[in-house]
Amino acid sequence: MTARIGVVTFPGSLDDRDTQRAIRLAGAEPVALWHKDKDLKQVDAVVLPGGFSYGDYLRAGAISRFSPVMETLIEQAKAGLPVLGICNGFQVLTEAHLLPGAMLGNDHLHFICRDQKLRVENAGTAWTSDYAAGQEIHIPLKNMDGRYVADERTLDELEAEGRVVFRYLDVNPNGSLRDIAGITNAAGNVVGLMPHPEHAVEPLVGSGRTDGLPFFTSILKKLVAAS
Amino acid sequence: MARVVVDVMLKPEILDPQGQAVQRALPRLGFDGISDVRQGKRFELEVDGPVDDAALARIHELAETFLANTVIENFTVKVEELAVGAEK
């Protein structure tokens, strides 16, 4: 059985096709999901891709959080469905309260696009098992609203429970508190991060590295092992 | 008909780089003595029918779940009565 991984397209999603391609390269079957449909088509996992869903007109991810597909997704994520939110997808996950904290405009107010160095802090989530804890990777980052914030208590809790999954190294590109680039929920099935692993899956493009591919092979292994 | 105004502001402890950028431009424009600027959002909701307690409670809920993200923002809800024919 081939693992089926859904990719939601919202109005304003930009990286849905790249994400589908990354899933295919990893050996799974990408399934296109539409924001207006409540049905998740019985997929085994879901990726919320990058972009500017609903134009980010109210706050990044705020309007998409109330789309029909999210109603079903929130319910199933709470029941254990693996969900990965990349960039705008991460913003949607915080707005949906599937992940704690919130995303705000970059502290320097500029859109940023760079090859970002990260440290993998947690290789125990559904999406990071093909990395090693402490591993340093480079994947592209491009965002306007990438400043992760949460109150001190939440930050302490995330640190204590090992739920900071990725941290920015060398440069903090957006003013994220404690250099946080990605986090997970308590169960480890929902992960959000600002940088874009789907843009680093083929040696021909981007930085020439494939440091993003393990996201998609991690989830594939987990799903195959579970079936 | 009435207008209900929802004002949304970042919580005081949250860095507001937009407000800071505005503040930094003030001396250049000749406005001295303003030590801090914070930028928020104002929503004006035109409400059909009376703004009774039930309607206000609904708007409060709307503000809390959608217009503001209470993880990072505070909000206030206030009613502005519109006098008929008093438009400027």
Automatic annotation (TrEMBL), chain A:
Entry keyword Hydrolase: yes
Keyword annotations from UniProtKB, A to Z: ATP-binding, Cytoplasm, Glutamine amidotransferase, Hydrolase, Ligase, Nucleotide-binding, Purine biosynthesis
Gene Ontology cellular component annotations, sorted alphabetically: cytoplasm
Subcellular location: Cytoplasm
Catalysis performed (reactions): N(2)-formyl-N(1)-(5-phospho-beta-D-ribosyl)glycinamide + L-glutamine + ATP + H2O = 2-formamido-N(1)-(5-O-phospho-beta-D-ribosyl)acetamidine + L-glutamate + ADP + phosphate + H(+); L-glutamine + H2O = L-glutamate + NH4(+)
Keyword field contains Nucleotide-binding: yes
Active site: 87, 196, 198
A biological process from GO: 'de novo' IMP biosynthetic process
EC number: 6.3.5.3, 3.5.1.2
Involved pathway(s): Purine metabolism; IMP biosynthesis via de novo pathway; 5-amino-1-(5-phospho-D-ribosyl)imidazole from N(2)-formyl-N(1)-(5-phospho-D-ribosyl)glycinamide: step 1/2
Gene Ontology terms, MF aspect: ATP binding; glutaminase activity; phosphoribosylformylglycinamidine synthase activity
Organism domain of life: Bacteria
UniProt-listed InterPro entries: Class_I_gatase-like, PRibForGlyAmidine_synth_PurQ
Assembly: Part of the FGAM synthase complex composed of 1 PurL, 1 PurQ and 2 PurS subunits.
Listed PANTHER family: PHOSPHORIBOSYLFORMYLGLYCINAMIDINE SYNTHASE SUBUNIT PURQ
Known role: Part of the phosphoribosylformylglycinamidine synthase complex involved in the purines biosynthetic pathway. Catalyzes the ATP-dependent conversion of formylglycinamide ribonucleotide (FGAR) and glutamine to yield formylglycinamidine ribonucleotide (FGAM) and glutamate. The FGAM synthase complex is composed of three subunits. PurQ produces an ammonia molecule by converting glutamine to glutamate. PurL transfers the ammonia molecule to FGAR to form FGAM in an ATP-dependent manner.
Name of the protein this chain belongs to: Phosphoribosylformylglycinamidine synthase subunit PurQ
Lineage: Bacteria, Bacillati, Actinomycetota, Actinomycetes, Kitasatosporales
UniProtKB/TrEMBL annotation, chain B:
Reactions catalysed according to its record: N(2)-formyl-N(1)-(5-phospho-beta-D-ribosyl)glycinamide + L-glutamine + ATP + H2O = 2-formamido-N(1)-(5-O-phospho-beta-D-ribosyl)acetamidine + L-glutamate + ADP + phosphate + H(+)
Alphabetical list of InterPro entries matching this protein: PurS, PurS-like_sf
EC numbers: 6.3.5.3
Pathway this chain belongs to: Purine metabolism; IMP biosynthesis via de novo pathway; 5-amino-1-(5-phospho-D-ribosyl)imidazole from N(2)-formyl-N(1)-(5-phospho-D-ribosyl)glycinamide: step 1/2
GO biological process terms held by the UniProt record: 'de novo' IMP biosynthetic process
Top-rank taxon: Bacteria
Name assigned to this protein: Phosphoribosylformylglycinamidine synthase subunit PurS
Free-text function comment from the UniProt entry: Part of the phosphoribosylformylglycinamidine synthase complex involved in the purines biosynthetic pathway. Catalyzes the ATP-dependent conversion of formylglycinamide ribonucleotide (FGAR) and glutamine to yield formylglycinamidine ribonucleotide (FGAM) and glutamate. The FGAM synthase complex is composed of three subunits. PurQ produces an ammonia molecule by converting glutamine to glutamate. PurL transfers the ammonia molecule to FGAR to form FGAM in an ATP-dependent manner.
GO cellular component: cytoplasm
Residues that span the membrane, as ranges: none
